[in-house]
Write a structure and sequence with these properties.
Layout: E1 10-14, H1 26-35, E2 40-43, H2 64-77, E3 83-86, E4 88-91, H3 97-104, E5 112-115, H4 121-127, H5 132-149, E6 154-155, H6 171-188, E7 191-195, H7 210-218, E8 223-226, H8 239-249, E9 253-258, E10 261-266, H9 267-273
Parallel strand pairs: 1-2, 2-3, 4-5, 5-6, 6-7, 7-8
Antiparallel strand pairs: 9-10
Helix pairs in contact: 5-6, 6-7, 8-9
Length: about 280
């Protein structure tokens, strides 16, 4: 019998209970990552934001050091067995850049996800004016702005806005705006995420959907796969299906970040290494 392929891939999007809507100790997430044939996991819990913004679903500013220590202790516990790294999922909206620059400098981060969260009440109050199509356009403009700041390695779940009003989502209508945003993102060199948790949202498909993945592939935008795990059993969920979809639209490599440097490996090898 041939030996099993060596683990190659990382879970690049996972949370902790500090965000107030995830459950399970980080060690439980690492155990699942190991069982599913991953090489390691980069925790990317929701960053604290200023002025109490979105405080109900993220760590408080004074908990950031607690988060850093939690992941450091988990890394030590799995040393020599699984590679555990510290990352962050940081929200973007215009004006938050100085806060994030200072926050990111407080710890050695291995992967920084940039997210525009259109469901956050404070974001919606500021940018939604009663027209969902306008809101979708604002979202994609902010996604491109996020890439252009240089603050992020990867843009998370990059069509998340479609779940805010599924009845108002028509890809052919928004596509020209997406194409302009993708042109800007491609020029920035920032990667984009295929978030497998989208199958559980209001529009049950991965984020982004297939047509947007095709547009990303046409522009040579690197893709990082992440399950957006908020409980241990979600680690690497849907990875095989996501990797196959990437192959179908033309991708041959999948990426992940360590030390904020992009690593790439063949999708075929990544698929073979999963359990």
């Amino acid at each position: 019998m041939l030996p099993a392929p060596a683990p190659l891939l990382y879970e690049s999007h996972a949370h902790t209970p500090l965000c107030k809507h995830a459950v399970g100790l980080p060690a439980e997430y690492v155990d699942v990552a190991e069982a599913r044939g991953l090489r390691g996991i980069v925790f990317t819990c929701h960053c604290p934001l200023p002025d109490g913004i979105s405080a109900a679903v993220r760590m408080a500013p004074e908990q950031f050091d607690v988060y850093v220590d939690l992941i450091a202790r988990t890394r030590e516990a799995f040393a020599g067995r699984m590679d555990v790294r510290l990352g962050l999922e940081s929200d973007f909206y215009p004006g938050v850049e100085p806060w994030l620059e200072k926050l990111h400098a407080r710890a050695v981060l291995h992967h920084v996800l940039g997210s525009v969260h259109p469901q956050v009440p404070e974001y919606r109050a500021r940018y939604f004016r009663g027209n969902w199509f306008d809101y979708q356009q604002t979202y994609f403009d902010h996604l491109a702005q996020a890439a252009e700041t240089g603050l992020f390695d990867t843009l998370a779940h990059p069509d998340l806005v479609k779940n805010e009003s599924p009845a108002s989502w028509r890809f052919t209508r928004i596509e020209p705006h997406i194409q302009r945003a993708l042109d800007r993102i491609a020029a920035s060199g920032v990667a984009m995420e295929l978030n497998t948790s989208g199958v559980n949202k209001a529009l049950p498909e991965m984020n982004p959907g297939r047509r947007m993945l095709e547009l990303m592939c046409e522009r040579g935008i690197p893709v990082v796969i992440g399950a957006d795990a908020h409980r241990p059993q979600q680690v690497a969920a849907g990875y095989a299906a996501g990797l196959r979809q990437l192959e179908e639209v033309g991708y041959r490599e999948i990426s992940f970040f360590l030390g904020r440097q992009r690593q790439a490996l063949p999708i075929a090898a990544a698929l073979a290494s999963l359990k």
